[in-house]
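Hello,

Following up on my earlier ticket. Below are the two sequence lines again, exactly as submitted.
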Amino acid sequence: MESSDDEHAMESDTETESDLISGLPEDILQKILSCVWIRTVVRMRRVSRKWMELCESLQFIRLDYRDFEHWKVEKFTRFVNNLLLVRRKLDLHTFQLHWNPHGPLNCNDVRMWIGYAVKHNVKVLDVKLCLYDKTVLPPAIFTCRSLQELNLQWGNAPYRDYDHTGLVLPDIINLPSLKKLTLRDVEVDELSLNRFIARSPGLEDLNLIDSAMRLDLIASKALKRLTLDGFLGECDGFTIAAPHLIGFECTGCSLEAISWRDQPSLESARIDTCGYSFDCESKFTGVLKYAKKLALFGSDIKVWLLKRQACGSICCFLSLIFLLEHTFFYYSC
Amino acid sequence: MTAPTMTSRSPTSTQRSSPRSLSTARSTSSTSTAAAAPAEDLKSFDAEFVKVDRATLFDLILAANYLNIKGLLDLTCQTVADMIKDNTPEEIRKIFNIKNDFTPEEEAEVRKENQWAFE
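Thanks for your patience. The regenerated structure is below:
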């Protein structure tokens, strides 16, 4: 199927060199290939010698279960193994694997593929599984010096493990290039969080989904965006000391539990709390004063905003008296 | 307004497309950062913007790359990817006028290998 077929275009294509695409810079061709269905990419080895080289040097491996509908797990596994075997000996930028609940992968294969990615200095590792067979995550991931972005969502701890709800991080965490981290159902306590922060000076984006466990202090000078979406166990209260934070999202703990140190000036915040009363003076005013996007919901937000309105310190909240419990309130500049 | 100098296999087509790409790319990048424009309007603007002949499309890619306009580069690369879609190698060669420089034996070998490894 061709794009706009006007006469002039057809003429100019035959007048000048016909094959305009193969002459584009390699990094642009890799970018184009990263948007192409991977099953088509492997077929494109047959197009020409240049394209064979390009496909075998694929920088972005994206495997989504929806592109392999009706494939048995064994067939998919062979596909991925052969994809990695055919690949030329060079670094890999992205390894992305999103696998669905129906028909779990063999975790030995997943570990092999991750091992391949790590050995080839992967920058972006994004793996979503529904089931994993061990409690501890593969240690090799957490000492990968090239890793810039890590996203692991592997389901809860295996059923037979009664000591843990979430998956467990290995002891050694050293990711000097890490900029963005997303973990779901992984037990992240104070110690492991500090290991990430201490060894990843460029960590700007931190997203913990049903992972934050008994955190006391989140302190980072580099952190720009923080999401705490659900907690493991009770959330007793924690302090955030991140002076350069511009985005904050928090779901599942009471407003009173959140304290601020080295107050940042947030550009956007989304807070969905679950407390019932709010008696203390809020440190939130300063933090939210310049926010351009604000989404607040929960019953203790209503209590807090009614109190602040009396002092008139946030003039943009005008109709809060009419907020109902659990009503979503969205404000945007 | 002068176009930036950039290497191109086809100077004529570069000169033809650069002023359009520069001025529209500026409006695209400023529009995409403004919260005011509705998503549907932006989407149809984007779709119309890339309805050009292939030579212009590739020049837009080069311009976006050179000027480091991420939104435009993403859009144009996605457009080319959509042209590749799930076509067979023969169809892809036809769409982009790519010359098949394999010998028949070599191509048969690759075809067999693909069938064994990836089908």
